[in-house]
TrEMBL record, chains A, B:
Annotated organism of origin: Methanococcoides alaskense
Pathway annotation from the record: Cofactor biosynthesis; coenzyme A biosynthesis; Cofactor biosynthesis; methanofuran biosynthesis
Catalytic activity: L-tyrosine + H(+) = tyramine + CO2; L-aspartate + H(+) = beta-alanine + CO2
Function: Catalyzes the decarboxylation of L-tyrosine to produce tyramine for methanofuran biosynthesis. Can also catalyze the decarboxylation of L-aspartate to produce beta-alanine for coenzyme A (CoA) biosynthesis.
GO MF term (any one): aspartate 1-decarboxylase activity
EC number in record: 4.1.1.11, 4.1.1.25
Name of the protein described by the UniProt record: Probable L-tyrosine/L-aspartate decarboxylase
Modified residues (N6-(pyridoxal phosphate)lysine): 228
Record keywords, A-Z: Decarboxylase, Lyase, Pyridoxal phosphate
Similarity section: Belongs to the group II decarboxylase family. Sphingosine-1-phosphate lyase subfamily.
Known cofactor(s): pyridoxal 5'-phosphate
Length: 379, 379
């Protein structure tokens, strides 16, 4: 650090330059983040000094978090005190880590526990494995890229404490058969965590005949991220357990705070993100989110139809607003799209395809421009 | 969630009510958080949609983070590419978790590793133990509440992979003898993590004859929190390793992002907090932080002198801006101060004393008012 500080004007000028070097979301087709809603930013800023790591000092923010949990509960058919059965995390990774940690703590009778996830699960589960030493077994997928039930069943043994199902896979937006996983979890008397980090704010606002939440008896915890499709600010994740007692498995004794227990993974925790999530959920309501989702799905359809006209199909029929375009030499096409046209797309692992997430910042006009450049890039 | 959203005005009115229920920091003498600096809030808001979990999309913010790491490096006498040897975390807990995870990954040849911390260490190490299953051994303290070197030495065995020293204990603001821990770590060829979450932005700005950073050969990683005494926004923690290779031990492969590796504990990560930390550190400079710290120390002195006039001593002579007042029936006095006067103070564990953290929001006038109420409460 330098001895003398820079003036406010110097700092703001430098920040402006740094900001200009960042990519505008307008050309980002690879991210599950987007611009937060205006009201989310207002609320975040208003509560920016609030620390949910010490909630006794911030009963107002704490109450906002309880109301968010109740809203989650309603969305996810939760039956038993959602306001006591979860919290707002920093995002999907913390939620997944904590869900597995709760299973492990609850089943401390199992010395070498394992859990079973789909091969399509998010890389946060690799962090869980590395952090906790818990064995993670990866089940294979069926030809629609959903987890294969027979594979899951074959991996279960006496040390298996839980399963993970995904409602909206990161790569393909595919929906695992959570109803069948739920039956299996009940049969084997083990936990079932549903990672709906992305799908949790999409599925409830579509007309889908799909069960994936606490309506299913076997579902014991869920990840659902407000800083993705809910338009809240970073860092806003959600974690909800079926029963408060599973949440309480995360308890750590805390001396010298205004409360004597803490359940979160982090200590100091953003009250700004809590207020932001409350504000945007209350402001949009179900009707607002239905509009967000139906707009994204309409742009998704436009992309699929436009690609089809170029002779490009999709790896699976898109279920949510995520599209995997089946393009030969996908890595090369991706590079061309970036280097020659400034588009950020990503690549799925298996099969290698062009992955595009249609977030709310992607408009019809964006897709028109993108399709023109795609046509050039695949030539 | 309700079907119809509320208007912006309705939301803002409700947020105002919630905000009024939160405690103003002016009566909070128990927290290591405070109001962030104005420029920190401005920068955070400007970069609020930036996600450092996908840094390829945000090269401008990524560069700001590199510059913060270089500033940390200068402050902490780091010698080998600080910009490649750490990152901005969500706070002290993530930093401590990741430091221990790196030790464990580096020493994967040890099947049942243990680490040794002081009994005075932060409760985040209980989270580390619960998460990782690593054994945490707690060394006793000397009569000045510093970690006892003989106790540390006696706990080391062939499975010990690291030690933790604290530069500014959460309860008493005491400084462990990091120089001696460093010698011990070198002798035993093990890691030494220094938790300077609080002290990291206090000690460098005082005239103290105290070594605690990478100037000492044995120090292999450090926690230092910008959202405490550096006046940055939540969530801003810092983690810096002596060598880039220790940092690289945290690597997880990430498909479908703009980069193919991730080192952080969380996935999505606040770029707003990165910009905020950059802005406030550049704006205040060493001179600015010296003023912040010297003001806090002057208020600390005022509190100690005022308490002394009431016949109340301190458990140890305060080294930093944390005071433990040796009051009989501390729990009762704490309750009276809160119930009758609205002051939030906390209680140390052993001995039980009134703990007061003099953050920048505590002014001389605050302490004058507090001392008057303290006089009534101890009667």
């Amino acid at each position: 650090m330098e001895e003398n500080g820079k003036t406010k004007e110097e700092i703001l000028a430098f920040l402006k330059k740094a900001k200009a070097a960042d990519t505008n979301y307008e050309r980002v087709l690879s991210s599950m983040c987007t611009y937060p809603h205006e009201i989310a930013v207002l609320a975040h800023t208003q509560f920016i000094e609030s620390n949910m790591g010490d909630p006794g000092l911030f009963p107002g923010t704490f109450d906002l978090e309880r109301q968010v949990l109740v809203m989650f509960g309603k969305m996810l058919h939760h039956k038993n005190c959602p306001e006591k059965a979860g919290y707002l995390t920093t995002g999907g990774t913390e939620s997944n880590i904590q869900a597995i940690r709760s299973m492990k703590n609850f089943r401390h009778d199992i010395p070498k526990p394992n859990i079973i996830i789909a091969r399509s699960a998010h890389f946060s589960f690799d962090k869980v494995a590395n952090l906790s030493g818990i064995e993670i077994r990866k089940a294979s997928l069926d030809n629609l890229l959903k987890v294969d039930l027979d594979s899951v069943r074959s991996l279960i043994d006496e040390n298996t404490i839980g399963l993970v199902g995904i409602a909206g896979t990161t790569e393909f937006g595919q929906l695992d058969p959570i109803d069948e996983l739920s039956e299996l979890a009940i049969e084997k008397n083990i936990f079932l965590h549903v990672d709906a980090a992305f799908g949790g704010f999409v599925i409830p606002f579509m007309d889908l005949d799909y069960s994936y939440d606490f309506k299913l008896e076997g579902v014991t915890s869920m990840t659902i991220d407000p800083h993705k499709m809910a338009l809240s600010t970073i860092p806003s994740g959600g974690l909800l357990f079926k029963e408060p007692e599973y949440f309480e498995c995360l308890e750590i004794h805390t001396p010298y705070l205004s409360v004597n227990k803490q359940y979160s993974l982090t200590g100091t925790r953003s009250g700004g993100a809590v207020a932001s999530t409350y504000a945007v959920m209350k402001h949009l309501g179900r009707k607002g989110y239905k509009k967000v989702v139906s707009d994204c799905m309409s742009v998704t359809k436009k992309l699929v139809e436009g690609a089809d006209k170029l002779g490009i199909g999709t790896v699976i029929d898109p279920v949510l607003n995520i599209v995997a375009l089946d393009v030969p030499e996908a890595d090369l096409v991706r590079k061309k799209l970036l280097d020659e046209h400034g588009w950020h797309v990503s690549i799925t692992r298996d099969p290698r395809a062009l992955r595009i997430v249609i977030m709310p910042h992607i408009k019809n006009e964006t897709i028109e421009l993108f399709l023109k450049d795609l046509a050039k890039a695949v030539k």
